[in-house]
Design goal:
- The model has no long low-confidence stretch (mean pLDDT 96).
- This protein is an alpha+beta fold and 302 residues long.
- The longest helix is centred in the C-terminal third of the chain and has 13 residues, at 226-238.
- It has five helices and 20 strands.
- It is globular and about 60 Å long.
- The chain has helices at residues 17-27, 69-79, 160-171, 226-238, 288-292, and strands at residues 4-14, 30-34, 37-41, 50-54, 58-66, 83-85, 93-98, 104-109, 147-157, 174-180, 187-193, 201-202, 206-210, 215-223, 242-250, 256-261, 267-272, 276-277, 284-287, 294-296.
């Protein structure tokens, strides 16, 4: 079992907080500013899933949520790290770690949850074989917050095997799909998920890519449903933001995806309808073609 339950938040510095706040709100989050720092959340109870401070554009790190105080203690002990009281919204405990590339990786526990926000909903879908909506029209709700949660983060790393070992030792991650570059076993990286035993979790919480250097690739946020993803695409297009990739449907993970560039130049993804697996699904290998291929939509990664 993993000592973490999920990814918790990502942190950035950006040159223009006002522009970033407007983008995050247009992207579908609720944003608060405290002492010159932006804290953005979704409809789930976490008070923040995205943090941005003023500065030169940079990816500052990510955080995972520990399953228990005991798990947090055991994670901290691996590196001799100190458990501190968190000064972030909701308080709780926090441990600061540093991965093999020098990236800040925090682990949090005991954050006081906020009230959940209303979730946009719609009537059942009608398909060729199932008609769950009869004598009713689909009228989509207007909603400013359509993101549910942070789903995963993708990081380019200097050496995949070194980083893989570090993250797996501390967080008990399972490989879902390891990407093979050739028949000789050369590996590009791997999609990794939390191990919650019989409980079903996202196909990946973290994807590490062997790139010869540390670099932020993208962070993905689960959106309420397919209709809200499409409405978000239209809104972001009409407000002049730069589309990166999508709309399409991945092969590995099956998510319907839509990638956008924020004002600071970072890529953030909307996704919905992703695969869920538990421990029994095991680990698999996949060729590079399945990483870049789509089941429908534009081919090729951004």
């Amino acid at each position: 079992m993993s000592p973490i339950i999920d990814i918790h938040h990502v942190r950035f510095s950006v040159a223009d907080l006002a522009k970033q706040r407007q983008f995050l709100e247009d992207f579908g989050m609720k944003v608060n500013e405290e002492d010159g720092v932006l804290y953005a959340r979704g409809t789930d109870a976490s008070p923040y899933i995205y943090i941005a401070e003023q500065g030169e554009p940079a990816f500052l790190g990510l955080a995972f949520a520990a399953s228990s105080l005991q798990d947090l203690t055991e994670i901290a002990a691996i590196d001799g790290a100190v458990i501190e009281n968190s000064s972030l919204p909701g308080g709780g405990k926090i441990v600061h770690l540093t991965d093999p590339d020098g990236l800040s990786v925090d682990v949090v526990f005991g954050i006081t949850e906020s009230d959940t926000l209303p979730v946009p909903s719609r009537l059942p879908l009608n398909t060729g074989s199932t008609q769950g909506r009869q004598n009713e029209r689909v009228i989509l709700q207007d909603a400013s917050v359509v993101i549910k949660r942070l789903g995963h983060c993708v990081i380019n790393v200097t050496d995949f095997r070194t980083s893989e070992a570090w993250y797996k030792e501390r967080f008990g991650l399972l490989t879902s799909d390891e990407i093979q570059l050739d028949d000789n076993g050369t590996v590009l990286g791997a999609f990794m998920r939390c191990n919650r035993g019989e409980k079903f979790v996202d196909h990946h919480t973290l994807f590490l890519v062997h790139a010869g250097k540390l670099e932020f690739n993208h962070a993905a946020f689960e959106i309420a449903d397919w209709d809200m993803l499409m409405r978000g695409h239209d809104l972001l297009t009409n407000r002049g933001y730069e589309a990166r990739w999508g709309i399409g449907k991945h092969v590995l993970g099956s998510q319907v995806f839509d990638y956008w560039k924020d004002p600071a130049g970072f890529t953030l993804e909307h996704f919905t309808d992703g695969d869920l697996f538990n421990e029994s699904w095991g680990s698999h290998k996949a060729p590079l073609e399945q990483l870049l291929k789509v089941q429908w939509g534009p081919d090729g990664a951004p």
